[in-house]
Amino acid sequence: MPAALGYRMPAEWEPHDATWLAWPHYHGDWPGKFEPIPWVYTEIIRNLARRERVELIVNDAAAERQVRKLLDRANALSPNVRFHRWPTNRGWMRDSGCIFSTAHVGTAAPGRPTGASAQDELLALKFRFNAWAKYSNWRHDEKIGTLMANAAHASGIRPLSRKTRVVLEGGSVDVNGHGTLLTTEECLLSKIQQRNPAMSRKDYEKVFADYLGAPHTIWLGRGIFGDDTHGHVDDLVRFVSPDTVVTVVESNPRDVNHKPLRDNLRRLHAARDQAGKPLNIVELPMPAPVVFEQRRLPASYANFYIANGIVLAPVFNDPNDRIALNTLAALFPTREVVPIYSGDLIWGLGTIHCMTQQQPAP
């Protein structure tokens, strides 16, 4: 098992080699509102490429030519953007891409050759992807993790539980890099959109320990209303340091999110980390409800992305944007916090964290 050989999923704030993105092309994710979406991507790429390499997946050569033109118009075309011509169904790389794992710094893991190169230190965990046990268009995306692993020269591993491949999306877990993982019961234990019908709570915890190097799991309850992944944790609670989490709260007692978020906050106060210590808990407000075509969308400030020297934060033209940005700036004093307007992006039911996947530096 990777953890037994000294491997673990690093925390997101640890150094990156790159960020993986897939260029948006599936209009069905933003029906009637697709036109602004590529420009949101150009802004994200422009900011990321100043700090780290961007591995950008496009469907084919024609798509690459078109994307290069758009990036050039937006002052976002950079030598730090590397293109990969692979067909995709959709662009949510957090969930369809592989999860990279690295060796513990300073450990001599048994079974790893002495003097192993940096490439040997990078593993790619290729969990199964089935479009959140909800959609039928996933077969191209299911192959993306393997292609990513090959491009990164990482050894690929297909995690198993009871000899069966495990379905797991990156948005359903968050780690502190020191042995503790956050997830939700709604996503992994509910019979709605059930990813792994044969897996129990203990089975998941064993997978987290064996493959992600996170033997201590903190289970939250429900996700936010409108989340079609059915409870991803990256809209709720995020580690921002080994002992500190930010969690979204809803102050309006009449809002549908008030009670489940209050329950999650209570669970966090009762939780302990891998060393048995209580967590430092910082609250983030929720934006006012974002509604389009009479549908409440899963807008959340928790869906930020931490890259080298920068934090990309979703904003919604809401008064609480300022509070969220100030909170993140205080939590990441050495990083630039960049707001990304996500009022259009959220019509696809995800924002910045959902569309990115980090490749840690070995």
Description:
The longest helix is centred in the first third of the chain and has 13 residues. About 4% of the residues have low confidence. The protein is α/β, with parallel strands linked by helices and 362 residues long. It contains 10 helices and 21 strands. Strands 1-5-6-7 form a 4-stranded mixed beta sheet, covered by helices on one side. The radius of gyration is 19 Å and the shape is globular. The protein has one domain: 5-stranded Propeller (L-arginine/glycine Amidinotransferase, Chain A), CATH 3.75.10. The two termini are 18 Å apart. 25% of the residues lie in helices and 25% in strands.
Individual helix count = 10
Q: Beta-strand percentage?
A: 15-25%
Query: In order across it, which strands form the biggest sheet?
Result: 1-5-6-7
- Overall, the morphology is globular
- Structural class, by secondary structure, is alpha/beta
Fourth-tier CATH superfamily name: L-arginine/glycine Amidinotransferase, Chain A
| Count of distinct structural domains | 1
Number of strands: 21
CATH topology: L-arginine/glycine Amidinotransferase, Chain A
**What is the CA–CA distance across the termini?**
18 Å
Helical percentage: 10-25%
Biggest sheet, open or closed, and with what strands and sense?
A: 4 strands, mixed
Q: Which CATH architecture?
A: 5-stranded Propeller
